[in-house]
Amino acid sequence: MTIIFVTMSSVNDKNLLLLGILHSEDMHGYQLNQFLKHPSNAIRIGKANAYQLLAKLEDQGFVYHVEQRDGNRPPRQVYSITPAGETEMLRLVKDQLGDYQPIDSPGSIPLNFIELIKPQEALSLLQQRQARLAVHCEAFADFSDEIRASHPGIDFLVRQTALEQEFLTKLVEEYQHKQKDDNDGEPKPQD
Fold first, then answer.
1. Helices 47-59 and 11-24 meet at what angle, rounded to 10?
2. pTM here?
3. Looking at the predicted structure, is the pLDDT value of residue 156 above 90?
């Protein structure tokens, strides 16, 4: 029996992230989207979803925006958190900090079915995944020990990614051995 756990980020998770970002600094939409795309964010929020959430947060009085114009550029909306938004952010932090939610990890699902493909193909795909993970890990290289110490959520993600790298390295090694064993068992071509 295969057991698969998948959870989804809640609206509260997304609201907390948006309020927390705006707590740090006011941002216009492009800046906010760039920030949301960074690998240090534990959850992904697409551009359209971010704007929908911001509109709802604004309707609730938790954020507001002002239009700013920079030279001849089109006007842009700069979002800020309100005092009510600060209160809501702290409420969400307190509500969620003591709670435990399993990590949303859809990338682990195919690992449960890896035995359905040939070891050689699995090895190739795992090495491809390993290379992509290495690129992802490079984004964390900029975080100093000081930043990680003052932002435990970032430290958690860095450690989680390192654990995933370690796991994937061992799995690749396992499949390299399987491929070697498969090759050792086949008759060698005649000269």
1. 80
2. 0.67
3. no
